[in-house]
Records
---
Amino acid sequence: MREIAYVFVLGCTCLLVWGVFHLLDLLVNWLVSKVWLVLEKRHLSRRRD
């Protein structure tokens, strides 16, 4: 019974860690795209002047 509990806890921990990293990856990608858009807009506005 103990072994099953250990495996269950280990599996949940792995899933949690994977989920957190996946969310962080999505967040970083979103932030990079937002920053890229802002920089692109600034660059375009500078070109027009």
---
Amino acid sequence: MKQMTLIEMDGFLKGKCIPRDLKVNETNAEYLVRKFAEAEAKISALSEDHQKAIESIKQADSAVKLAHEKFSAMAAENAGMKSFGDKLNEMHNDLNGEGTGIQGRAEVACQQVALEAAMEEFDAIKTPATDAFLAEVKTEARKEGAYFVANRMLAAWEAGFIDDTAKNAADIARMILTSTEFMANAPEGDFDRSFSDGVLEDIAEQLRKGVIQ
């Protein structure tokens, strides 16, 4: 129903006109109560949508701030490393060649020792923000790899290339997908394929010997 004009409302209240959506045997009072209830429901829904929009904006703002903090920390670390690296290059370029005589060779030796000490300091620089970001990226990439494996395995089973029961196929897929929950804290050795290669070699050997089928 479109919004009533003042004249239409006056005519409705005086019984001179009837709204199109007036129900059979519905009194004017019942009609108004129903329309007010519908309006309140719409207002409530709009209020909820508005609140959800505000929450979404807050979450997005928090995510942007967190990302800004991470990248700012990484930028500061990288700027520090670049500055230190530039100084090392300057020190290297300032070395006096091979030197001449005992004094020249002694100067070169001292400069070389200083440069090696500086290189050790450079190697000892900590970059926690950069390391954390790279670890996060690596973990997400590994998770996507697990999703890929589960998808390929189930697709192969559905196509009939894997001869096994539906329960076993589902159990294996769930095991692969569940593994993503432990990836962040798993040791690097768990991501090396050498273990799988070793087990596959053992299985192949047992198949050749007829121990298993």
